[in-house]
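Catalogue entry: protein
Contents: sequence, fold tokens
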Amino acid sequence: MILPEVRDPRLVTIRRGGTLRDEDHQLLALWAADCADHVLELFEAERPEDPRPREAIAAARAWAGGELPMMRARAAGGHAMGAARPLRGAPRFAAYAAGQSACVGHVAEHDLGAAAYALKAVRGARGDDAALRAERDWQHSQVPAPIRELVLEDQLRRDAICWSVFTA
């Protein structure tokens, strides 16, 4: 469970009564795609013939660029999560990260799902918190400046429901 019971209005679009601007929503999707892409090899090493997680990351980027409707990006996310289900460990978490990234257009808070699953993938592959912290530092270095404060505050707020990977 990566979504909070109480939604932060800063992560709800203006159209739906929140304060999230479209351009920031798109940046969240691009950052989530980067987080997922960074660990995608952990899935592809296990299932090189399965394109669904890679397609989900591409869908997240295409949605952010205005090239793909949200519902098609979200569907690609679901397909990536379907690729994850029969797996265990790092490959599973990497595919879930990809799926979460494609769902950011639907619900912005899936951005942390992508980041958290990517961190779980690294921990699963490398087996230690030092690797997780290095990946988290990399993720932080990729957060675009306009959304940096929002992402870092949200990571602290939702850390407990995201397996405490943001403060490990």
In short: Residues 47 and 53 are 10 Å apart (CA to CA). The radius of gyration is 14 Å.
